[in-house]
Amino acid sequence: MIEASITDQEFALFQRLIYKIAGISLGDSKKILLVGRLTRRLKVYEFGTFTQYYRMLATGDHPEELQTMVDLLTTNETYFFREPKHFDFLRDEIIRKRTSPATFRVWSAASSSGEEIYTLAMVLADSLPNSPWEIVGSDISTQVLAKAATGHYSLARTEGIPPEFMKKYCLKGVRSHAGTFLIAPELRKRTSFYQINLTQPVDAEIGDFEVIFLRNVMIYFDMETKAKVVNNLLPRLKSGGHLIIGHSETLNGLKIAPLDTIRPTIYRKP
């Protein structure tokens, strides 16, 4: 019989484990969320306690299950055109003032299930109709990356998408796909996805970017991890490029490479 609750000692074990793997500080208020998301895994292995599940993960002999746990505990809610002023700034202040003919590259560093990536794709397609551009999306969760790569969403997710973009860049499903929509192929072909743990140095093969979106992920990190993440990303940001973070986040007090503050939550690399 699987226990319906988790002890404080067991929860502490998972807090340390997810911090070690992903740098996420899982507060005590997340205990119910952890129980809800991991109980199903206990059922799979017919474990009676969270300690048994933890011990299996801690051996290091089950990397696939460890990834499953990370997927379950790091999946966060997102939506199209979230915090829209950032996309207005991208269009009006960054894209309109650029003079380089080079491919315009944007990195959605915590892309989750892809809504941010495809919001960016719509903005770039609309603002750079005759210029090359591409978007890289990354996340620690393989589950959400697989979802993002499909570009397939419920019509219930369309709130926030301007009607003209919905008409131009989204294909409504029919028959067995009724009630859903697909991001247009011409946008999807300019996107690519990578599993990246932001707490680790970023491989230079990903390339350099004019803009990096790092939004609504640092709220899960402590100060030390926030600084580590930002310093891992900055080498991939071109000189003069912009770093954009979430409206509930700040870089104040972090020991990071110098950045110029352009607006609250928008920074420029000298």
Automatic annotation (TrEMBL):
Going by the UniProt record, its keywords in alphabetical order are: Methyltransferase, S-adenosyl-L-methionine, Transferase
The catalysed reaction is:
L-glutamyl-[protein] + S-adenosyl-L-methionine = [protein]-L-glutamate 5-O-methyl ester + S-adenosyl-L-homocysteine
Q: Pfam families, per this entry?
A: CheR, CheR_N
Protein name as catalogued = Chemotaxis protein methyltransferase
All residue ranges annotated as the CheR-type methyltransferase domain in the record = 1-270
Q: Does the keyword Methyltransferase apply?
A: yes
Organism field: Candidatus Dechloromonas phosphorivorans
Q: What Gene3D superfamilies does UniProt report for this protein, alphabetically?
A: Chemotaxis receptor methyltransferase CheR, N-terminal domain (1.10.155.10), Vaccinia Virus protein VP39 (3.40.50.150)
Q: Name one GO molecular function term.
A: protein-glutamate O-methyltransferase activity
Role summary: Methylation of the membrane-bound methyl-accepting chemotaxis proteins (MCP) to form gamma-glutamyl methyl ester residues in MCP.
